[in-house]
Amino acid sequence: MTVPQIIAWLERKGSRKNRGGMARYAIVADKVFGVSVADIRTLAKSIGRDHALALALWKTGWYEARMLTAFVDEPDRVTPAQMDRWAGDFDNWAICDTLCFHLFDRTPHAWQKIRAWSTRKEEFVKRAAFALMAGVALHVKQSPDRPFLRGLALIERAAGDERNFVRKGVSWALRSVGSRSAALHQPSVALAKRLAASSDAAARWIGRDALRDLTRPMVRRKLARSDKTRG
């Protein structure tokens, strides 16, 4: 399919109802048709992987076309410069999280961008650092624990950011790292406890949110099974 054909397909699938639902979840974009993620993923399966097409789709500026790139682009052909350009275009949490969770975390540049973006001023670029950390923690099974231990320092440093989408991203990263392995669970819980006791409201919210998740019996059982399997 060509870019014009894809845009026409998305326009036909769009609806006012979907646009209203997106607005209720604070998904705001300048150019949006209102296409469900399920329909976008169905379209992606019919297209397959195509790096050049993904670059062209991103340039259209349409929200759904950019969402589609997460499932169409080829992770091994994504460059650090491309990641920076696209992150700079993020204008809502959904496009940020989808790109980080379905494309960027599969590139060899993930940790480089986690470190670089974790101190950025732009709300959705900074959120991207922690959405990306969560994606790597959940998807890159063969990675050793050491980068995630260093990642906890990035989480602690960003925990004072009171912006809603940043603090939720930081909490997501902490919860994902802490539930990755038994070896990471203890230092993650320790960090969550420190943050929960902080005098800073944003850090305190992140600590309490992560602590509720990381101390659930289900998480402990999962980690015990994982530890036993590794042993």
Keywords:
mainly alpha; 231 residues; 14 helices
What does this structure look like?
The chain has 231 residues and is mostly helical. The protein has a domain at 1-73. Helices cover 72% and strands 0% of the residues. The chain contains 14 helices and no strands. Helix 11 runs antiparallel to helix 12. The N and C termini lie far apart (49 Å).
- SSE order: HHHHHHHHHHHHHH
Alpha carbon gap, first and last residue: 49 Å
The rounded Rg comes to 18 Å
Annotation field: number of helices: 14
- Overall geometric form: globular
Main β sheet profile: none
Low-confidence stretches: none
Mean pLDDT: 95
- Coarse structural class: mainly alpha
Q: What share of the residues does DSSP label as strand, in percent?
A: under 5%
Query: What helical percentage do the residues reach?
Result: over 70%
Give me the count of strands: 0
SSE map:
Elements lengths: L2 H11 L2 H9 L12 H11 L3 H9 L3 H10 L7 H10 L3 H10 L7 H8 L5 H17 L6 H13 L5 H15 L3 H15 L4 H14 L2 H14 L1
In short:
With 231 residues, the protein is an all-alpha fold. It is 72% helix and 0% strand.
